[in-house]
Design a protein that fits this description.
Radius of gyration: 16 Å
Structural class: alpha+beta
Number of domains: 1
Number of strands: 4
Largest sheet: 4 strands, antiparallel
Strand content: 35-45%
Distance between the termini: 46 Å
Helix content: 25-40%
Order of helices and strands: HEEEE
Strand order of the largest sheet: 1-2-3-4
Shape: elongated
């Protein structure tokens, strides 16, 4: 019983962490796409595109940093 309760707790925490900072989640023919927003050490916001667990790139939100290549 304790093992089952621990598994439910781990699953709930995993789902919460997956949804944390997520702006958009969509599903297409190629799979699940997700955009998350983070901040760097200078507190500049940037967004990252994920396909499943694979990171496909990041871009700063505010100009002029949004024009700089990041990944």
């Amino acid at each position: 019983m304790a093992a089952a309760a621990a598994m439910v707790l781990v699953l709930a925490r995993s789902v919460r962490d997956f949804k944390k900072d997520t702006i958009v989640r969509e599903r297409s023919f190629y799979g699940a796409l997700r955009v998350r927003e983070f901040t760097n050490w200078l507190k500049e916001p940037y967004r990252t595109l994920y396909n499943g667990k694979i990171e496909h790139g990041a871009q700063y939100v505010n100009p002029p940093s949004s024009l700089l290549p990041t990944t």
